[in-house]
Amino acid sequence: MADSKRVCITGVGAVSPFGRDAASLWAGLSEGRSGLRAITSFDASSLGCRVGGEVPGYAAREDIDPEAAAWMDRRALFAADAAIQALIQSTLPITSESTAAIGVAVGCELPGEGSVSTAMTIARTVSAGGPVSQLQNAAPSGLMAIGQAAEWIRGEHCAAAVAGGAESPLSPQWVAHFDGHGLLTHRNDDPAHAVRPYDASADGFALSEGAAMVVLEDEELAVRRGAHILGYIEGYGATFNRAPVAHAAANPTDIARAMQAALRSWEITLQGEIDVIFGSGGGIGPTLDALEGQAINRVWGPNKDRLWVTSIKGALGHALGASGAFGVLAAIFCLQSGLIPPTLNLEQQDPACGGLELVAGDVRRLLGSKAMVNAFGLGANASLIIARP
What we know:
Layout: E1 7-15, H1 22-30, E2 37-38, E3 51-52, H2 66-70, H3 74-90, E4 102-107, H4 118-126, E5 132-135, H5 141-154, E6 160-167, H6 172-180, E7 210-218, H7 219-224, E8 231-240, H8 253-264, E9 276-278, H9 288-300, E10 308-310, H10 313-316, H11 323-337, E11 339-340, E12 357-358, E13 364-365, E14 370-377, E15 380-387
Parallel strand pairs: 4-5, 4-6, 9-10, 9-14, 10-12
Antiparallel strand pairs: 1-7, 1-8, 2-3, 6-7, 8-15, 11-13, 14-15
């Protein structure tokens, strides 16, 4: 498919612990601030982890029909908000003539509260009548949704799509569930420094809520209507580890396969052109973050010294199915600004990560034009490549 359509990004939207738009998200990340704080939305005093990335004081957008909003759960409200933001920025017109050419793909790890999927809710909210898909493949779900939407456009199943991830996991049930599996931090006295990706002292992640959405378009359509192009999707790969769930993260081979698939997809080879990886590292010590480091070493070998690696989860927490989509937004802003946001709270790199060139402390200057975003969990792995216009 060497002559396949090129997929561009024309709009972004976000609801995050940093605020209700994508600019607030990037400001928090690039300024090295933390969006984590003590949980206040419910009484967490009896739980082992009492830290989270809450969206404070959230209410539905005023331009969402109140009757429709009343049927949406919190996750769907986040997703609708971010989707509308992205569409406004894109200036993509949705009319009775164009609706059938616009798809929606949303990734979520946890089940929602209603009987209608978040993706279908978004399609109704924005009047999209093309293909609709909701992925529930653990943490990579949102990243996979963006990759799937890009494939739709390349395959001419639609001309444009709204895609991303959304999650609202901050409840006593889900915090207790993840803490019961030994995955959450217990650094409750210092929320801003609790999550430590790739650090030797990491003791777990903190759950976070929100949504991150993008508008993808066939480049020809975007250019013809004079849209401002924010970036391009240049590669996508996904793999699965067939081992039982208890052992699904025990081998970096399948993480490496996802990165290799993205690097070699769409009949192009990009390995020497990637300048930064927005990693999946979430402070899940002492072994899980190291798996990604080992996988990067397998793919890049001695060339890893020319590759920056960072994680936004030290600042944002783990938004589960939305985490990869947040990584995509961070990568877009990174490529636009030339600044790589730091991995918060990284003080002593875990030796098991294999000596990666991790961004710690302050932002770094990005000299190149391409970024990779990784997400993996429970055996599912995904990698997406984004290029500067």
